[in-house]
Design goal:
The N terminus is likely disordered. The protein is built from three helices and 21 strands.
């Protein structure tokens, strides 16, 4: 009887909330996301060996999103659980996978000027420098204070200061993350069909080092900084879409080495017909010559560009060979020449993209600093097919193949002649429970 009474209360409360949904809760929304993805890997991220067995697993992201807004206040909370199928026994009492992806509050000082505080995604332009990393099941968010002006000229000013726990003294931070970060982003339409964004980013890291003084080794910590500035332009006349980006980074890297690196990206998309789109582009991420790294391992100038907090999977191939999240961001850089063709019809979409990869700096051959290898790294083909199942759900099937070179084999290991491929099947369900 007690269980029946509790169930009855829940049902009554649910019905009551539903009846008031269009009135008292008109500015409240509750939505969810369930995204399982099955993956097959045989040469994903790095070349495999011929005798290596392929890997396979299924991962899942589950999110519950709460959003509230009125004339002056907005609030958003996103709680998620990310796990691998089979990673927990069938009978378990607790899970360490649940986390808060977003939890922020926003107050509007005027209709155009607001202050947004808390854990939130930072997504700007094409997500090259700041992105949500939506492909990664856990996603990316920042604990940040954001002053936002939304007018003809859009201005975002953000600042973050990280601690991994409460301290009574000092401000030591031992997580693999920035210690502090500030940025300014500007965006406006210069004229019709011409949009321009400018970005300035300052990163601060804590660097641990040893100081030998008076016959004793001392553990020391200092803050080091680097600055990135640049912008993105997008021109959209008629059926064409031309975009260009450029960024320069200077200061110190996370190992306290001098840093001087740059990025250039160009792209042109063309709507060939009602259902056909073509695209070509080029990206250059500067790199550091291996000779410099070997001859001066602690003091060389770092010329390798790092896109920091971008959505890396969107760029340079879906097999993530040159993902900024791995050690490639401190390597010989990258040139990526790519072309794509896409067909769309009602609920169906198919895309084929080809990449030709080359290094941006020299790679030494057989350990001889006076001999270099060919810059060509390999060619990757990415085939993606998507189908919209319903208003709030879709399915995506992808297949990728890497044709690597001797240079890629030298840098990443594995065997260039092995069958290096990757495939996935991903379902996304995003229901809206209350709005």
């Amino acid at each position: 009887m007690k269980k029946f009474t509790s169930l009855k209360k829940i049902l009554v409360l649910t019905a009551f909330v539903g009846l008031l949904g269009n009135y008292a809760f008109a500015q409240f929304s509750l939505s969810g996301e369930v995204r399982p993805r099955m993956e097959y890997l045989h040469g994903y991220s790095t070349l495999t060996d011929k005798d290596s067995d392929p890997a396979g697993f299924a991962s899942q992201r589950t999110r519950i999103n709460f959003n509230y807004s009125n004339d002056r206040v907005k609030m958003g909370v996103s709680v998620q659980d990310v796990f691998i199928w089979g990673s927990q026994p069938q009978l378990f009492s607790t899970s360490n996978n649940v986390s808060v992806h977003q939890a922020w509050g926003q107050y509007f000082l005027t209709p155009s000027l607001s202050l947004k505080l808390g854990r939130q995604e930072l997504v700007y332009d094409d997500e090259r420098i700041f992105g949500a990393s939506n492909w990664d099941q856990q996603g990316r968010s920042h604990d940040v204070a954001l002053l936002r002006y939304d007018g003809v000229l859009k201005i975002d000013v953000g600042a973050a200061f990280n601690q991994n726990q409460q301290h009574l003294n000092g401000a030591y931070y031992n997580l693999n993350n920035y210690k502090m970060m500030q940025f300014v982003w500007l965006n406006t339409d210069i004229v019709d069909n011409l949009n321009l964004s400018l970005l300035f980013l300052n990163n601060g890291y804590q660097y641990d080092y040893r100081l030998f003084e008076n016959g004793t080794n001392h553990s020391m910590t200092k803050n080091i900084f680097n600055q990135t500035f640049g912008g993105r332009m997008m021109l959209t006349p008629g059926d064409f879409n031309f975009h260009a980006s450029a960024y320069y980074t200077m200061g110190k890297d996370a190992k306290d080495r001098d840093l001087s690196a740059f990025y250039v990206g160009l792209g042109l998309d063309y709507e060939l017909a009602d259902n056909w789109d073509l695209g070509i582009g080029w990206e250059h991420l500067s790199g550091t010559d291996q000779k410099d790294m070997i001859e001066n391992p602690d003091t060389y100038k770092n010329k390798s560009f790092n896109p920091f907090y971008g959505s890396s999977h969107k760029f340079n191939g879906f097999m993530d060979y040159f993902n900024a999240n791995d050690n490639w961001s401190n390597s010989v850089g990258l040139n990526d020449l790519f072309a794509s063709v896409q067909f769309s019809k009602r609920k169906f979409e198919v895309n084929l993209t080809g990449h030709a990869f080359l290094t941006a700096a020299s790679v030494i051959k057989n350990g001889n600093v006076n001999e270099t290898m060919e810059p060509y790294l390999g060619t990757e083909l990415d085939l993606t097919m998507a189908y919209k199942l319903s208003k709030n759900s879709n399915v995506v099937l992808g297949y990728s193949q890497m044709f690597g070179s001797e240079t890629l084999e030298t840098l990443k290991g594995g065997n260039k002649d092995a069958f290096n491929n990757y495939a996935y099947l991903m379902f996304t369900f995003k229901p809206v429970f209350l709005k």
